[in-house]
Design a protein that fits this description.
heterodimer, A: 105 residues, mainly alpha, Helix Hairpins, 3 helices, 73% helix, B: 174 residues, Four Helix Bundle (Hemerythrin (Met), subunit A), 6 helices
Chain lengths: 105, 174
């Protein structure tokens, strides 16, 4: 049994990516760094979809279609998030998440 | 397992281990480095590794799309956002140790839970699996079974594009 022909290998790689990304989302305060960590989370999800698609699914094209959908939504999300970050920077002269507290009561 | 390194399988395993290394190292750089530009480069490295994993999962088309969309579009867009926002030479505020510890504990708890879930589950393959991996089939699925999602996502991309243009132009005068 080769290592790259086992479902668990891919699941654990996705797990490690997810853990690293989650740590980044929780600990970083630069808004762009948070966005980068979110991209890592989305990639972990698409690795999972592709692995289940390769080893378990009845129709091996469905997982690929879903991975493509994830990429499209991630592109839209990145565009919106970056424009919001630029607007925040223009308003506050900072992209630190802890200084964006205008809505605090 | 006794596989000679210079057999085809041994080489494939070596390349696979290298791809795993690239993926994890890139992710660590993307989260750990202090310079935001190094973060983006680490993300690009990690995404190239993920594309390699997709190659091993029999999906060269999705691997190419990964490189094209993520590395080619999203990373470049993030680079532009970095250039247009905070100057790189300004030092950031120091990180608080307690908050990092909390983030580490939270992420570690989720990680442990998911690892336990992965280890304890007995994965069962579908009884009848078709062997059709081709791009043609992906196209058929996109335009038959998933056509509604496909259209909604194109609408989403259009709205996101317009929204980001309006959002980024605001405050610049007309």
């Amino acid at each position: 049994m080769l290592i790259f022909n086992q479902l668990e290998t891919y699941l654990f790689i996705a797990l490690v990516l997810f853990g690293i990304g989650l740590y980044g989302v929780l600990s970083r305060r630069n808004l762009i760094a948070v966005l980068i960590s979110v991209e890592l989370l989305l990639n972990a999800a698409s690795i999972n979809f592709m692995a289940f698609n390769r080893f378990l699914a009845p129709h091996p094209a469905v997982g690929q279609v879903i991975a493509l959908f994830i990429m499209a939504v991630a592109a839209a999300e990145a565009a919106i998030a970056l424009s919001i970050i630029m607007a925040v920077y223009r308003k506050l002269k900072s992209i630190n998440a802890e200084q964006a507290t205008e809505l605090r009561g | 397992m006794n596989v000679s390194f210079f057999s085809a399988q041994g080489l494939a395993t070596g390349a696979f281990l290298m791809i795993i290394g690239i993926t994890v190292l890139g992710a660590l750089i993307a989260v750990g480095a202090r310079n935001i530009f190094h973060n983006v480069l680490g993300l690009a490295l990690s995404l190239i590794g993920v594309a390699g994993l997709f190659l091993y999962l029999n999906s060269p088309f999705v691997a190419l799309m990964e490189i094209l969309i993520y590395v080619g579009a999203i990373c470049i867009a993030i680079c532009f956002a970095i250039m247009l926002s905070q100057p790189l030479y300004l030092p950031g505020p120091p990180r608080s140790f307690l908050k990092r510890l909390g983030a580490l504990l939270g992420a570690g708890a989720v990680l442990a839970f998911l690892a336990l879930l992965t280890l304890k589950t007995q994965w069962v393959a579908a009884a009848e699996r078709s062997k059709d991996w081709s791009i043609t089939t992906i196209g058929h699925y996109l335009l038959t079974n998933y056509v509604l999602i496909f259209e909604v996502i194109s609408l989403l991309l259009l709205v996101a594009m317009l929204g980001s243009i309006v959002n980024a132009r605001n405050g610049r005068g007309s």
